[in-house]
Amino acid sequence: MGQVLPDTMTAMGFDEPGGPEVFRAETLPVPQPGEDQVLIRVSHAGVNRPDVIQRQGFYPPPPGASPIPGLEISGEVVALGKGSPEALLGQKVCALVSGGGYAEYCLAHFRHCLPVPAGMALDEAAAIPETLFTVWHNVFERGMAAEGETLLVHGGTSGIGTMAIMLAKAFGLDVIVTCGDDEKCAEARKVGADHAINYKTQDFVEEVERITGGNGVEVVLDMVSGDYVARNMKCLAESGRHVTIAVLGGPKAEINMAVVMSRRLTLTGSTLRPRTDAFKAALADEIARTAWPLFENGDIRPVMDKIFALSDVSAAHARMEAGDHIGKIVLEVG
Questions:
Q1: Model pTM?
Q2: Is 1 part of any domain?
Q3: DSSP secondary-structure letter at 115?
Q4: Among the four 29, 211, 233, 247, which has the fewest Cβ within 10 Å?
């Protein structure tokens, strides 16, 4: 059941991996929702680093996922698959999806949707799911961050970085971030970071030692990997947790396991996109209980960088790759 829908839609895809210019508009059938799915008429779609890596040819979609990029959307539920609650029809939602966001219509599992509060704009709603789910799982579940602890985040002005700052502060943590210039450090402090380190002019290991009085941080959220891992470990307090969510600096790291043992460190990490529907549903349920009220009452709002038209997705990706953005880049679809 649902509204009368068109047979086809516009989506932004590519034939071969490459630079931002490979995107082109294509006409595709409007997808039909299967069991436990909803069809969303997309208002806005968030742009995330995994989209860039997919376009470059290094992050193929998991089996069964749409080949069209886009991992988070906002919009209106316009059709229901078997098993999806009828109350969702016509609702404004934002959703974590495994692909297909760069299109006029997109499928989502109904349990991966969150209701858009009355006071939240749909462009902001689209900027939340991927970073919120990622930060919640990795900082608070895998990283076991707790009130009174200190979190170190690399890339403090990225979408992930700004979300990590805001969530960590809301739950009583101190936050140290690294950024690539003084302007970004200032912006990170505006978002709520207690300390911001310019990693191009300061040694972040020395700065963390100074800031923490030699105690170190309990949790590192690592998006770099590579040679940062050994340096991050020097920043960790005893029984500290190191959580990797991206390998922008390369996937291989040299680790002194004697240090891991003697200081009782935990090294972990995860990727969100390939996880099961059941896992993402459980994560969404926990977020709805614990973190979503902060968005509903306006305590947390995503840091927005720039909104591009869907047809300008190449420019959106170019901006992300340039690294000049502060917060989230979003596509306006409908």
A1: 0.96
A2: no
A3: E
A4: 29
